[in-house]
Amino acid sequence: MQHHSKMVLNFRLGKKTLSLLTGIIGILLSMSAFAGGTAEASTSPVSASVENDSRIYSGIDSLGNQVTLKKRPESIVIAGKATLIPADAVVLFESYNKSIKALGITNQGLGDFYTLYLSNVQDRMPHTVSAEEIAGTSPDLVIIKDRNYNSIGKQLEKLGIPVFAMSLENPEDYIDEIIELGNLFSEQETARNIVQLYESWLETVSSRIELLSPEEKEDILLLYANSSDGITSFQIPPAAWIQTFITREAGGNPVWADSAVTNNWQLVSFEQISAWDPDRIYIISYNKPAAVYLEEIQQSSLWENLSAYRNGYISTFPADFHNWAQPDTRWILGLQWLAKNLHPELFADLQIEAQVSSFYRDLYNIDDPAIIEELLSRFSSSLKTIE
User: Fold this and answer.
1) What average pLDDT is seen over the chain?
2) pLDDT surpasses 50 at 372
3) Is residue 23 over pLDDT 60?
4) C-alpha torsion sign, points 72, 197, 61, 127
5) Domains 3-203 and 212-381 share a fold
6) Any residues with CB less than 8 A from the CB of 77 and at least 6 apart, and which?
7) What is the chain's Cα-based Rg?
8) Are 235 and 268 spatial neighbours (Cβ–Cβ below 8 Å)?
9) What is the signed CA dihedral for 174, 177, 178, 182, rounded to 10 degrees?
10) What pLDDT score was predicted for residue 119?
11) Alpha-carbon torsion, ordered 37, 42, 48, 53, to 10 deg
């Protein structure tokens, strides 16, 4: 990111840092404006060509590229591998939802939220979509996960199509990129409101967790379970990723953090899991219900000697249409749920069902009781624990 990224709040500093967020947001927005985000401060303003629209549409993506549009984008494509991650950020800017003309695959295996939320988008593109296929839709703007930049982003730029890449892999990047997306859309106020919502939800957790002593924080292990050719493997996330952040901020000790030496999911052996012998284990699954892997664990004699197994503390990490332990908007729900699960006495007044309802209402403007009920039902059915 641009030079201001290191100034984005470090959530790990706790309540004191969070209380400074409002001021920091102002600094970030003004610095982004200096980089070309607003008409008043831009060194090379580019007026929109739409009549009576003098706004500037310019933001810095996760790769440090300044993306400037000549006018408000009316035809947006979000595509490539991991489409869900940038899509969930884009749709927070509701005024642009009707501008989304094509969308990549967002069903990870548990269902597709976007069949409910963006039912007007009929053009769905496979993960393997080519730059030429995307260009064929005549987009004003293409938004991708940054891992797709080399495979399709560069080619699209050669065709004269603006590309905005997003990472969103940790909370610091998440806040920074929401702000820059707001600059690109000339929706700085919307970006500010989104960030302030996250500030409020984070404060609910951090203000209580900071009261804990180190001895009160249990050893936690988050395991991403996946199966291929009938063989199940388990992986740990990088120390800098949002799954590790969620664990730490929820008042747990992520036992894998010092061993996560790569910048991607890392295979972990059962011998290593046994050596850590954490107090609690949470199973993450993105493409099928995590309960499937919990059943495998329960049927295997390997796990029986682990403390977490003996004490009934091997559980699934919650989901609705998508698992809450990934860098989409729902990571804040994952944090709140885990904090309450680990420290119920500190969060007796925190009702996760109510948080789910307010989350989708405040961020997605969903107030349809039938949709909320579906989301809550999926959440409830995703929760399983070793007996």
Assistant:
1) 88
2) yes
3) no
4) negative
5) yes
6) 100, 101, 102, 103, 125, 134, 137, 139, 141, 142, 143
7) 21
8) yes
9) 180
10) 80
11) 80
Contact 84, 108 (CB under 8 A): yes
Where helices occur in 105-187 by DSSP H, the ranges are 114-117, 131-135, 154-158, 171-184
Who wins on pLDDT, 265 or 51? 265
Break the chain into its structural domains and give their ranges.
3-203, 212-381
Q: How far is CA 368 from CA 224, 290, 360, 371, 372, in A?
A: 32, 28, 10, 5, 6
The residue written with tokens 């199966």 in the block is 227
For the stretch 257-297, pLDDT in tens is 999 989 899 999 999 999 999 999 999 999 999 999 999 99
DSSP 47: -
pLDDT at 120: 81
Q: Which two tokens stand for residue 77?
A: 């494509």
Q: Please, which residues bridge with residue 280 across strands? A: 220
Q: Identify the CATH number of the domain defined by range 3-203.
A: 3.40.50.1980
pLDDT in tens, 231-262: 999 999 999 999 999 999 999 999 999 999 89
Between CA 255 and CA 220 the distance in angstroms is 6
Instruction: Return the number of other C-beta atoms located less than 10 Å from residue 214's C-beta.
Output: 6
For the domain made up of 212-381, give the CATH fold: Rossmann fold (3.40.50)
Rounded to two decimals, the pTM is 0.84
Alpha helical stretches, state H, 78-150: 84-90, 114-117, 131-135
Measure the CA angle with vertex 339, ends 334 and 344; round to 5°.
130
Distance from the first to the final alpha carbon of the chain: 46
Tokens linked to 106: 């967002």
**Ramachandran angles phi, psi of 145, nearest 5°:** -70, 140
Read off the amino acid at residue 222: L
Q: In the structure encoding, which two tokens stand for residue 243, read together?
A: 């799954």
- Reported as a single tens digit per residue, the pLDDT across 188-224 is 999 999 999 999 999 999 999 999 999 999 999 999 9
